[in-house]
Specification:
The protein has about 80 residues and is α+β, with helices and mostly antiparallel strands. About 45% of the residues lie in helices and about 20% in strands. It is built from three helices and two strands; from the N terminus they run H-H-H-E-E. It has helices at about 5-20, 30-35, 40-50; strands spanning about 55-60, 65-70. Strand 1 and strand 2 form a beta hairpin. Helix 1 packs across helix 3 (about 40-50). The longest helix has 15 residues, at about 5-20. The radius of gyration is 13 Å and the shape is globular.
Length: about 80
């Protein structure tokens, strides 16, 4: 049986999930700097597809740019 995701994607999913479970709030910049993941919105969509309750909101930075922030809903 073929795996659902390639190994590198699985590793990123596990790493990001562990960060979320520790209570971290992730943005693209944080995930890129700390975990080497640029495709954060894709990974969060994949976690949602695996039934994790990933929450998100748009935030505005001081320079006026809007980005998404992700966290795991408390259980």
């Amino acid at each position: 049986m073929k795996p659902l995701y390639p190994f590198s994607t699985q590793k990123q999913l596990w790493t990001l999930l562990e960060a979320l479970r520790r209570g971290e709030r992730l943005t693209v910049m944080v995930s890129l700097q700390k975990y080497g993941c640029y495709a954060l919105s894709q990974r969060m969509g994949e976690l949602r597809g695996l039934w994790w309750k990933v929450q998100s909101r748009r935030i505005t930075l001081k320079n006026g740019k809007r980005i998404s922030e992700y966290w795991l809903e408390n259980r």
